[in-house]
Amino acid sequence: MRANLHRHLTDTPADVRNLGILAHVDAGKTTITERILYVTGTTYKRGEVHDGTTVTDFDSQERDRGITIFAAAVSCAWDGHRINLIDTPGHVDFSDEVERSLRVLDGAVAIFDGVAGVEPQSESVWRQADRYGAPRIAFVNKLDRAGADLDTAVESIRARLHVTPLVVQLPIGRENGFVGVVDLLRMRALVWADGRGTCEEGPVPDSLREESRRRRRLLEEAVAELHPIALEEFCAESAISERTLAAALRDLTRTGEGVVVLCGSAYRNRGIEPLLDAVVSYLPSPLDMPAVRGSQDGTEQERAADPAAPFAALAFKVSSTATGRLTYLRVYSGTVEKGETVLDAGARRTERIGRILRVQADRHTEVDRAVAGDIVAVIGLKTARAGATLCAPAAPLVLEPPSTAVPVVSVA
Ligand code: GDP
Questions:
Q1: Distance (Å, rounded) from C-alpha 328 to C-alpha 317?
Q2: Which regions of 161-214 does DSSP assign to beta strands (E)?
Q3: What is the mean pLDDT of residues 343-361?
Q4: What ligand 1 atom has the least distance to the C-alpha of 145?
Q5: DSSP state of 3
Q6: What angle do CA 360, 364, 367 make, to 5 degrees?
Q7: Residues 314 and 104 sit within 8 Å (Cβ to Cβ)
Q8: What integer pLDDT is reported at residue 30 of this predicted model?
Q9: What's the Cα-to-Cα distance from 397 to each of 217, 342, 350, 388, 403, rounded to whole Å?
Q10: Within 13 Å and on the Cβ side, how many CA atoms surround 83?
């Protein structure tokens, strides 16, 4: 199933999301990662009744756990997109390794505890992501816990992170009775009530209709205040359409003027599918990111995420595994094929790319090539160290140290 889903994906940078999950220890990063890998291996589709293929398979979850702990990046497929989950630290640490993991992601999900809200540690992680201009969405986790409250957590996001929260869901039920959310864009209810973690879509329950309308209005007002096109529509029609709202939320995410807030309970597998939908809708693809800069012999160069440009990649992690010496690459421009010779530009040494692997939830898949925007692991590099730039020998380039540039805004 997973391999099939991956095979259907094309090598289009626009369909890639390089995602980090940022959280302080205990907020639920491991649980959410596991749930994402599990959910993306299923046949979830909006509004469809399931055919029984999504029953929790604890064996595969255990496998996921093993790989997740050791991999620097894991790929999964969602709604025609490839999501590369990059392992990021759970603690504040300015080591080179941490800096490199933040550098290679294009966007992040920040996890908050539904009881504690923003804690000092989550604030530090947030600020660290600020330095890289990484667009974020927020996920308020553990809504099933006693004392959990989305509104309180949202207020702590506003007060402590100094960013406007754009709440796109209304929880259905509280604490132990938390069963789902109202999607305030589509005004539909998503409920995980069958005990298997599968998501079913339906109309907003009568008891929540008025509150959902009120919350939708609040969302529209908040968006109109920040986004000129949304404001225009709001003034002309005294409402904002779902389409304009979605486009505005995407823009505001990318500029960091607002943060889309979703909620759920990773432990109970509630809220993961809409979170993945939000990742695909709001977080940028490699094409939305500014071109990377580098230099060779004093000459400045720029490289855009174009598969046809000369190859340039950053080796961001090297690890020894049973499969061999794995070098994780973020490809910034061009295409690299297995068997190709590349230049380690800093060391001025050529090396051969042996095999190219995509690390998935429960396996490695060998691929023939990797293109701009993608993250893969390669086997065969003998000396390239983490932090090295690998590039086409005919177009040498050393990538600049991490930049703090904010991404390009695309106004729909
Ligand atoms: P990490 O340190 O951020 O990776 O956090 P973990 O995923 O290991 O979670 C920390 C603890 O919180 C574990 O005991 C989890 O079982 C628990 N946990 C994670 N998500 C939830 C949730 O949604 N609800 C509840 N009640 N507990 C959760």
A1: 5
A2: 164-167, 169-172, 180-183, 188-191, 200-202
A3: 91
A4: 26
A5: H
A6: 100
A7: yes
A8: 85
A9: 50, 11, 13, 11, 16
A10: 29
- 63 HSE (CA, 13 A, CB side): 14
Q: Could you list the residues known to form a binding site for GTP, using ranges.
A: 23-30, 87-91, 141-144
Which phi and psi (to 5°) does residue 314 adopt? Answer: -110, 130
Strands 73-78 and 16-22: unpaired
Indicate whether 312 pLDDT > 50.
yes
Q: How many C-alpha atoms does 201 have within 13 Å on its Cβ side? A: 11
ipTM of the complex: 0.98
DSSP state of 397: -
Q: Which residue has the tokens 């979830």?
A: 44
Which residues does the annotation place in the binding site? 23-30, 87-91, 141-144
Give me 311's structure tokens.
């190859």
Number of the ligand 1 atom closest to the C-alpha atom of 34: 7
pLDDT of residue 89: 66
Contact 365, 78 (CB under 8 A): no
Ligand 1: distance of its center to the CA of 20 in Å?
17
Q: Is 199 exposed, middle or buried (0-12, 13-18, 19+ CB in 10 A)?
A: buried
**What integer is the mean pLDDT of 225-231?**
97
CB-CB neighbours of 72 under 10 Å: 23
Reading the block at residue 18, the tokens are: 């390089």
d(CA 292, CA 119): 33
The pLDDT of residue 227: 97
* Residue 70 phi, psi (nearest 5): -100, -20
Cα 48–Cα 285–Cα 139 angle in degrees, nearest 5: 60
CA 197, distance to chain mean position in Å, is 21
Task: Give the pocket of ligand 1 (CB within 6 Å).
Answer: 23, 25-31, 90, 141-142, 144-145, 265-267
In this predicted structure, the answer to whether residue 258 has a pLDDT above a threshold of 70 is yes
CA–centroid distance, 142 to ligand 1, in Å, is: 7
What single-letter amino acid sits at 75?
S
Give the model's pLDDT for residue 411.
40
Contact, 312 vs 394, CB < 8 A? Answer: no
When pLDDT is cut at 50, 70 and 90, the band that residue 407 belongs to is very low
Answer whether residue 338 shows pLDDT above 80. Answer: yes
**H or E element, residue 124:** helix 120-131
Task: Give phi and psi for 101, each to the nearest 5.
Answer: -65, -35
Instruction: Residue 358: name the closest of 42, 50, 67, 49 by CA.
Output: 67
